[in-house]
Amino acid sequence: MNYGTLDLNTVWFVIVGALFTGYVMLDGFDLGVGILHLFAAKKDEERRVFLNAIGPVWDGNEVWLVTGGGALFAAFPNVYATVFSGFYLAFMALLCALIFRAVAIEFRSKHASPRWRCFWDRSFAIGSLFSSLLIGVAMGNIAWGVPLDKNGEFAGGFLGMLHPYALLMGVTTVALFSMHGAIYLVLKTEGALQTQVRRWVNPLIITFILCYVIVSLATLLYVPHVTEAFRNEPWFFAIAVSVVLLIANIPREVNHGREFLAFLSSCGAMIGLMAIFGVGSYPNLVFSLPHPEYSLTAFNAASSRKTLGVMFTIALIGVPVVLAYSASIYWIFRGKVQLNKTSY
Amino acid sequence: MSILTLARLQFAFTAAFHYLYPPLSIGLGLLLVIVEGLWLATKKPLYHQMARFWTKVFALTFAIGVATGLVMEFEFGTNWATYSRYVGDVFGSALAAEGIFAFFLESGFLAVLLFGWDKVGPKVHFLAACMVAFGAHFSAIWIVVANSWMQTPAGFHIVGEGLKARAEITDFWAMVFNPSSMDRLAHTVFAAWQAGAWLMVSVGAFYLLRRRHRDFALASVKIGVVVALVGAILSLASGHHSAEGVAVNQPAKLAAFEGLWETGPRAPLHLFGWVDAANERTRGVALPGMLSWLAHGSADAPVTGLRDVPKDERPPVNFTFQLFHLMVAVGFAMIGLGLWTVWVWWRGRLDHSRLLLWLLTFSVLGPQIANQAGWWVAEVGRQPWIVYKLLRTSDALSKVVAANQIVASMIMFMSIYALLFAVFVFLLNEKIKHGPDEADLVPTGKLGTGLATGEGGAT
Fold this sequence. Notes:
Number of helices of chain A: 12
Radius of gyration of chain B: 24 Å
Largest sheet of chain A: 2 strands, antiparallel
Structural class of chain A: mainly alpha
Number of domains of chain A: 1
Distance between the termini of chain A: 45 Å
Radius of gyration of chain A: 20 Å
Strand order of the largest sheet of chain A: 1-2
Number of helices of chain B: 15
Largest interface: A-B, 65 and 71 residues
Helix content of chain A: over 70%
Distance between the termini of chain B: 61 Å
Number of strands of chain A: 2
Order of helices and strands of chain B: HHHHHEEHHHHEEHHHHEEHH
Strand content of chain B: 5-15%
Number of domains of chain B: 2
Order of helices and strands of chain A: HHHHHHHHHHHEEH
Oligomer: heterodimer
Shape of chain B: globular
Helix content of chain B: 55-70%
Strand order of the largest sheet of chain B: 1-2
């Protein structure tokens, strides 16, 4: 497939970014529900409602990560190889957390013993918490920069990745996903449980806003290559402002009982945050610190133009179809959770 | 142990464990389509009850398949970074296509299949079953295409030298239809049908032995054994065709399958045996000339022996030989078991032949053993190459990963997978003991009303 003078490298930077944005926006609320699982739901039936709120969709949501990983492998194999081998232990821990999260949802309600349920409830919650934290830490490292050698191989260690900025990003991600999950739960619950869940929304919004402000300050002060991108293109600032406005809009919509709009606001904020992340990084996929010249970019780490073109065709055919039936599946499962015998 | 051995062990362990589940999803996916199709066509409540029961089993296998499959996708990068850089341009695009075309389809419609019983009509539910089965088959297509490219690379050229060398696509369709991909895909899918079908037969036979759920059990055995027997015969045909391809494209691998040392006509086919690789000898019972005839259609056709393969390009011979023969033996046994079952069925004595029912109860192990053995043969038989004749496995490792990291992650995966397997067996056993729900003989929600009024639409 020949796309003339189209800058396919940038196109794929955007597509990979969009896939990961889809992942955090969708699996973000699944993980958020998991983080709140032990705290916001105490009774067995409440916990079943939580699980069934994400029951039909979490699996499809996780596919965004699978496809994002596959697209990264295909479009930017050098980035895939460097990041996954370099962050070896971190990814193994993430996989462990995601496995426990996934099978806990499936296994928990299949057996009635309280100890069985307690074990899988904890697996679900801890798995979700650690997945969120590790995703945040990984993003923190990408934003901050990681040590690369001249062959583009990772030249650091595991503990070096746990620096304060990365941990701050980890905590921020946990706060963001919990907020997003709480809003999703307000959308999917009713009655007393909804009132109970609703009480979590405002404190979580405040926590997230605090984290957001601290991360922004830290970025301004200590991560010059990201702020530079914003200095060069002032209109990018509008994205940062709109994120704050969208988040401020959430309590307003919740108070008016417009739960779906509240959830959309939260989704919009997450898209904005990922856009900031992408704009701040472009064209770098992995920023190298202390040797910026070794950075892996959308241009020096990409597959051949031929492959990018073929895959762009695949994406043009596949993605609209995926979006169409994903939307219809969300439509089929719209409305409040009703427990029945096929539920988790 | 060297890092290479550790990385291979870890990958092999996680891949082997993962590969217990996708064949079940593919096979059960097809069977769900058949059962729901029968329900739509005949409106017999028994088929509704079967569909309900088998979707629950399907959900269980699918959940573990997804959880362990995510690991596989990450492990190309974590363990084999150099390989990933080398093949990313070719292999990565197949993997990405798998995500976009197969996984979204499978997981999206799975939601309707599992939780949509009361929300959609029977036709939409049937459509969901078709899409899930279609997605499961699609996922096999892309991963087998990618793996086949590693066996018989095509449609690419090598760019750069030394550390920077990598394969780039020149012809996408030549890559997809590389010499071994269609044969291997067919063989994989037919084997997967058997995995699902023999599971259904096993459970049905178990109930017949215990004299429980007779109608459900008989229907499960009958539907299961038809698919299983078709799958078994097609596995034999596609396996034979695949081996003919191996003879041409990967002679060292074929020689290892059969422990053949001397190049020449009238090459023998071993029924069983033992390979002494140090002395370059194979002992056992062999049919003279049979290998030449099977591989090239004539007993006088020469077959390449291992002595004509440089020593550092030979796969581990005895290991490959034994697992290959195990796979073939199990394959023939399954055909025999299938024919026997059909004969007993034809004579109307399915619930009387206790010996047969006992064998059928354990038949689920057959395809699993053969699938595992087949996968090992395919991968070990390609050694020492990771991409045949292009990249050695020893050169494909991640440069920055240390042995202790692999050991740590391997211990982690072994404990988690042991736990997962135990829970899987426990839950499957509970489901089977609990059996099909009598209440499912009366469809509920839109499924019930849809059939009663003769309308199957969604809305």
